[in-house]
Amino acid sequence: MKNIKVTASKSYDVLIGVGLLNNLGQQLLSVLNKTCKIAIISDSNVWPLYGKIAESALTNAGFSVVNFVFPAGESSKNADTYINILNFLAENHLTRSDAVLALGGGVTGDMTGFAAATFLRGIRYIQVPTSLLAMVDSSVGGKTAIDLPAGKNLVGAFYQPNLVLCDLDTLNTLPDSVFSDGCAEVIKYGVLYDRELFDHLSDKGLGFDREAVIARCVELKRNVVAEDEFDTGARQKLNLGHTIGHGVEAQSDFSITHGQAVAIGMAIVSKAGCPAIYAELCAVLEKFILPTTTVFSAKDLYTSALSDKKRSGGTVNLIIPREIGHCEIVPTPVEKLESFIEEGL
Fold first, then answer.
1. pLDDT at 284 over 80
2. What pTM did the predictor assign?
3. CATH homologous superfamily for 176-224+240-344?
4. Mean pLDDT, residues 18-44 taken together
């Protein structure tokens, strides 16, 4: 097992290994110091697989457990589900001495974290990510959110968890397409910061060393969060491929997944901003069965980008690769964004 400590407004451990879910109760005892009520928040795909395992591990350690299960999918990451979670916590009389636990992928983690940040003005919470994407990215760093009809993640808060527990065994039940989807965020870290990581992915493909690669991605994100917890500077680099990618998601009515959209976004910004790495990046993306092109026009993607939360007035900060392992934040006037996208299509 690997243990990576994140130091931000709240310090916490990220545990990465196999068989960790069975020891969830004991891990929480060491973090929360005593037993309490735990509300597990999960979705209709993950709960049947791991809900009872998590519940048993907690009850065996002396915790009182209640659970809330919502329909799986990005379409549930909305104000209605968020309010339903808050009402559930209130109806079950959770207090500030209790905790909520996100058991699932990025949608579950984002919503549970936002509910934890706002219920009783803040309650303890634990991330137990069960997807690759959530393990390497969304569960670490304290970004929580829900979507609005106008765009993704437009309502949220920065709120750090008390513990992140990544049981690698949960990856074994992911459909191949979902695992490949998460690989887009893994590749992103190589493009941003680590040529050696990128080369390992290029060499091994989907057979990469899971524990080592996930730990490396978490270390890289840990470093960024410690430097810029509230996303005003260096942390914005983690949005590589996301501004355009979110546009792809929105234009497809979310039939194109987050990882697929980020892959397309990375391909577009590299072709437009650094053609020298475009072919190499596309080769790796395609090795991981990720798309590199889109049917949507520059105008379509530009329209969606106008609602992106990373827009500041008349400027959008694009993350442009300069070489594998090094990217720059490039403030781009909104009126030039459509032509930039056009160059990358």
1. yes
2. 0.94
3. Dehydroquinate synthase-like - alpha domain (1.20.1090.10)
4. 97
Residue 178 has pLDDT above 80, yes or no: yes
Token readout for 12 is 């916490």
DSSP run (H or E) holding 332: strand 326-333
Contact call for residues 47 and 103 (beta carbons, < 8 A) = yes
Residue 45 has pLDDT above 80, yes or no: yes
CA of 115: how far to CAs of 36, 87, 97, 101, in Å?
18, 10, 15, 11
pLDDT at 308: 66
- Residue 98 and residue 37 in contact, taking contact as beta carbons nearer than 8 Å: yes
Longest dimension (CA), the chain: 59
Where do the domains of the chain lie? 2-173, 176-224+240-344
- DSSP calls for 135-197: IIIITSS-EEEEEETTEEEEEEEE---SEEEEEGGGGGGS-HHHHHHHHHHHHHHHHHH-HHH
CA distance 249 to 258: 7
Over 80: is that where the pLDDT of 306 sits?
no
CA nearest neighbour of 144 among 186, 85, 72: 85
Percentage of residues in the chain with pLDDT exceeding 90?
A: 92
Task: List helix spans (H) across the chain.
Answer: 24-32, 52-60, 79-91, 106-118, 132-133, 176-193, 195-204, 210-227, 242-251, 258-273, 275-287, 298-305, 334-344
DSSP code of residue 49: I
pLDDT at 309: 59
Tally of CB atoms within 10 A around 261: 28
The model's pLDDT over 124-160, given as tens digits with 9 standing for 90+, comes to 999 999 999 999 999 999 999 999 998 889 999 999 9
Whether domain 2-173 has CATH 3.40.50.1970: yes
Of 186, 96, 106, nearest to 144 (Cα)? 106
